Amino acid sequence: MAERSQIHVCIKGRVQGVGYRAWTQQRAIELNLTGWVRNRSDGSVEALFEGEPERVGEILEDCKSGPRHAQVTSVELLGEGGDRHDRFVVLPTT
């Protein structure tokens, strides 16, 4: 079985209303990652990525810029490990 890693992040800045969740889902699927993304009521975006360590690292770097109209000010690591997922989904705002 291939090695897998998982990270849980919070992305802050101008990240809502700019297609960040849809961009994140598309990028995660391209990288064959599982997990989820959602808006938070404080204006940030929260995501959990799981997959091959190199690809998880790649999406983490991508999140620092996001889609074209986003203005990311920080990507905070909230944790590593946790429940396993079988696909990548957009969750409701929390």
Give your account of this protein's structure.
With 94 residues, this protein is of the alpha+beta class. The protein has a single domain (5-90), classed as Alpha-Beta Plaits, CATH 3.30.70. Helix content is 23%, strand content 38%. It contains two helices and five strands; from the N terminus they run E-H-E-E-H-E-E. The protein has helices at residues 20-30, 53-63, and strands at residues 5-14, 34-39, 45-51, 71-80, 88-90. It has a five-stranded mixed β-sheet, with helices on one face. The longest helix has 11 residues, at 20-30. It is globular, with a radius of gyration of 12 Å. The termini are far apart. The relative contact order is 0.34. The mean pLDDT is 95.
Topology:
Layout: E1 5-14, H1 20-30, E2 34-39, E3 45-51, H2 53-63, E4 71-80, E5 88-90
Parallel strand pairs: 2-5
Antiparallel strand pairs: 1-3, 1-4, 2-3
Primary descriptors:
single chain; about 90 residues; alpha+beta; Alpha-Beta Plaits; 5-stranded mixed β-sheet; 2 helices; about 25% helix
Helix-strand pattern, N to C?
Answer: EHEEHEE
How much helicity do the residues have? 10-25%
Mean pLDDT: 95
CATH topology call: Alpha-Beta Plaits
Strand order across the biggest sheet?
4-1-3-2-5
In total, the number of domains comes to 1
Distance between the termini: 34 Å
What is the top-level CATH class?
Answer: Alpha Beta
Q: What Rg do the Cα atoms give?
A: 12 Å
Instruction: Give a count of the beta strands, DSSP E runs of length 2 or more.
Output: 5
Largest sheet: 5 strands, mixed
Q: State the shape.
A: globular
- By DSSP (H or I, 4+ residues per run), the number of helices equals 2
Which class best fits the helix and strand makeup?
alpha+beta
- Give the low-pLDDT segments: none
CATH architecture: 2-Layer Sandwich
Proportion in β-strands: 35-45%
